[in-house]
Design goal:
By secondary structure, this protein is an alpha/beta fold. The protein is built from eleven helices and 15 strands. The two termini are about 40 Å apart.
Length: about 325
């Protein structure tokens, strides 16, 4: 049975509608929305997905009431329905996809991005919702984190190939990390700073994207530039799991620059997927899983490996609640 809740009448003529200023323009709407004054206790993104301004116009109108919420209160309620999400590493290849996907779902999310430089900001559009900050300096990232509901961490140290490598001479290329950008500084200290700042700001959920291979100290990625990158990533993951903040840790397989949404996704644990032929995943699919993790309780307090079947093999994943329900591992 529907719960009767007083809200201002909203017209479909504008994004927020035409909210009546006088009492005789206010109407009681029969809805299944919990009482407005208790709304903060509910998931804002879940509420908005179901009750956008346009959907409210289609709800049944009932008799006039002498009292109703004010226009300011109604706008506040509708704005609460958006979940503000910060993507750090928004200038990277996967981070940029997440940021763009959030922007495309503007009725559900208010997107923010964090990049390292003004150059990076301008390169991806220069919008006002893009913040500049250095994750190794915790104070510089506070403005971006203040007021957000969720944080998606996609920062990572990136090894660079030494310029004197000549493929014609054979052998293997050598790699290095730039000064100030070693895995310990980026994947451990930088991620720890983000987690600490998010906890202090009361962030409700953190999604952290890592990498498969962390169970093997001798994994080849650890030898790149002598950076032990998977060791430091794993340490940050453990720190997040111990933080008390609801989390989702995604350990992605080999990342591919391919179209997303057309493959069957696979989840696993303890690098078991590395022993199979399905060890890769499109960046776009990783990005989608990051966003979907914000929508389901089944994704919280979970850590899992993520890969996909080859295109054309299996059924493309659409039911993310079912995907997250497969996962039983907390770390």
């Amino acid at each position: 049975m529907a719960t009767l809740t007083r809200v201002a009448f909203i017209s479909a003529s504008s994004p927020l509608g035409s909210i009546g200023h006088s009492r005789n323009k206010c109407r009681q709407v029969a809805t299944s929305i919990p009482f407005l004054d208790s709304l903060p206790e509910f998931s804002s993104h879940a509420f908005h997905a179901r009750y956008s301004p346009s959907s409210l116009t289609s709800l049944p109108r009932t008799r006039y009431r002498r009292s109703c919420v004010s226009k300011t209160e109604a706008v506040k309620v509708l704005s609460m329905a958006k979940s503000t999400v910060l993507v750090t590493g928004a200038g990277g290849r996967t981070g940029l996809i997440v940021y763009k996907k959030l922007k495309e779902r503007s009725e559900q999310y208010a997107a923010r991005g964090l990049v390292r430089t003004e150059e990076s900001k301008q390169k991806i559009g220069g919008a006002d919702d893009l913040f500049i900050g250095d994750i190794s300096d915790s104070n510089s990232i506070i403005p971006a984190i203040q007021g957000i509901d969720a944080l998606i961490i996609l920062t990572s140290a990136v090894p660079k190939m030494k310029p004197d490598f000549d493929p014609a001479k054979g052998g293997r290329p050598e790699f290095y990390f730039e000064e100030g950008a070693y895995p310990e500084q980026v994947d451990w200290i930088g991620q720890k700073n983000q987690i600490d700042a998010a906890k202090a700001a009361g962030v409700k959920q953190i999604v952290l994207v890592g990498s498969m291979g962390g169970t093997n100290l001798n994994h080849p990625l650890n030898s790149l530039g002598n950076g032990n990158i998977l060791v430091w990533k794993r340490k940050a993951e453990q720190y997040l799991a111990d933080s008390g903040i609801p989390y989702t840790i995604i350990r992605a397989g080999g990342l591919q620059d391919k179209e997303g949404g057309i493959r069957e996704l696979l989840v696993g644990k303890d690098d078991e997927l590395l022993q199979t032929e399905t060890r890769t995943i499109a960046r776009a699919d990783v990005a989608e899983v990051c966003i979907q993790a914000l929508q389901f309780e089944e994704a919280k307090f979970k850590a899992f490996d993520l890969a996909s079947k080859p295109e054309g093999s299996g059924t493309p994943t659409k039911d993310f609640k079912a995907l997250f329900s497969q996962i039983t591992t907390r770390f």
